[in-house]
Amino acid sequence: MVCSCSHEPAPPKPNSKFRIALWIALLINLAMFLVELIGGAYAHSSSLWADSLDFFGDAANYAISLAVLGASLYWRATVALLKGVTMALFGFVVIGKVIYSYMQGIPPEAVTMGVIGIAALIANAVCAFVLYAYRDGDSNMKSVWLCSRNDAIGNVAVILAAVGVFGTGSLWPDIIVAGIMAVLGLTGGYAVIKQALKERKIKVEVPMNCS
After folding, report:
1. CA 4 to mean position of chain CA atoms
2. CA-CA distance, 189 to 45, in Å (whole number)?
3. Assigned CATH class of 16-202
4. Exposure pattern of 113-141 as b/e (b: 16+ CB <10 Å)?
5. 166 CB contacts (<8 Å, ≥6 apart)?
6. Are 197 and 81 in contact (CB under 8 A)?
7. What's the pLDDT at 50?
8. Where is the Cation efflux protein transmembrane domain positioned along the sequence (predicted)?
9. Helices in the chain by DSSP H: which ranges?
10. Do the beta carbons of residue 104 and residue 45 sit within 8 Å?
11. Cα separation, 107 vs 124, whole angstroms
């Protein structure tokens, strides 16, 4: 008699197209991290500064995803869990930056915000496009898709904030957008954590010959 229990599917063969998509996203995110870090400091923009941290976090997440391609579902889910926690922590960090910017009361430089925001939107649109096909995969694939999607949404908001700052001379549009980005980080992190925890509970099948 052959006995078996509920099991984790065998680790998938690494997807070469997904690997290439991750490398493209990784390099783009590293480049935009440096651009927004410098630009955000120059423009005194909370939303650009927050987006630069997000680019750095995404680059790290893509690197981790590349490292676990072909690993078991348990380990891919474990890495995704870490990424989900990181996304949520990013949300809390941005909230702290928003509070600090409000206390400082310095309006950001709108033109720099707008130009860098447009460049970041183009970069994230490319990332979202190359990762779109993997949006319904496991928690690891889902997490990289959510990162790019949230970034593209955030970049549109940064551009709108730049327009608002330019028109009003107030720091509030920048603060509001940074707050939206914090919420995206928290909700995206929750979605990834939830799916990763579910996948980690899947047991490994061990076929046995029973006499």
Report:
1. 38
2. 24
3. mainly alpha
4. bbebbebbbebbeebbebbeebeebbbbb
5. 110, 111, 114
6. yes
7. 77
8. 22-198
9. 16-43, 46-67, 73-104, 110-131, 139-168, 172-200
10. no
11. 26
Task: Give CA–CA dist 95/112, Å, rounded.
Answer: 22
With a CB cutoff of 8 Å and minimum separation 6, the contacts of 152 are 121, 124, 125, 127, 128
Alpha-carbon gap, residue 200 to 75, rounded angstroms: 8
- For residue 32, the model assigns a pLDDT of 92
Total length of the chain: 211
DSSP 208: E
CA angle 188–192–196, rounded 5-degree value: 170
pLDDT band at 28 (very low <50, low <70, confident <90, very high): very high
Phi, then psi, of 44 in degrees rounded to 5: 55, 40
One DSSP character per residue, 123-146 reads HHHHHHHHHGGGTTS-HHHHHHHH
Cα Rg of the chain (Å, integer): 20
pLDDT for the residue 139: 63
**Contact assessment for residue 44 and residue 95, using Cβ atoms and an 8 Å cutoff:** no
